[in-house]
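Model it.
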Amino acid sequence: MIPKNEYSTYFEHYIKLVSKEEKSIIENLGASQKEFDDLLRNLPAEKHSFSYAEGKWTVKELIQHIIDTERVFCYRALCFARNDKTFLPGFDQDVFADNSNTNARDYYDLLDEMKVLRQSTIQLFKSFSNEALLRVGVASGNEISVRALGFLFSGHQIHHLNVVKERYL
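Modeled.
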């Protein structure tokens, strides 16, 4: 279990999705990616650009959101692990989505990109020492540890996979 002082309450939902299990960051990253890829690779083609309500993301946009978030948060993890004390800005997920041109992209290219990105994230976290995992930085005005970020990636992906199961299938 990750101590609550390592992340803001905003991220608690995501971290709780994975921290109740006794898996490592690396095990969680691999397991959540496998579950994600297994479900979405078999999604019928008519669902790729489906949105369950007006103004909600399509499945493609949801995948792109996970990719974008993981990239931004990997940068945060790298900065904090390397003991960079710069306060990092937030990012506006809706601005990213509005400017991604995702719905014009090939669905399977998005899944491939996510798979490669997750492998890169796993390698990044394998490179961190135990000391680096405990380092804390500030992003979006909130403190978060490198370790909490590692669990956050899996929890965020699982959260959105649950949304797909509940609202898109």
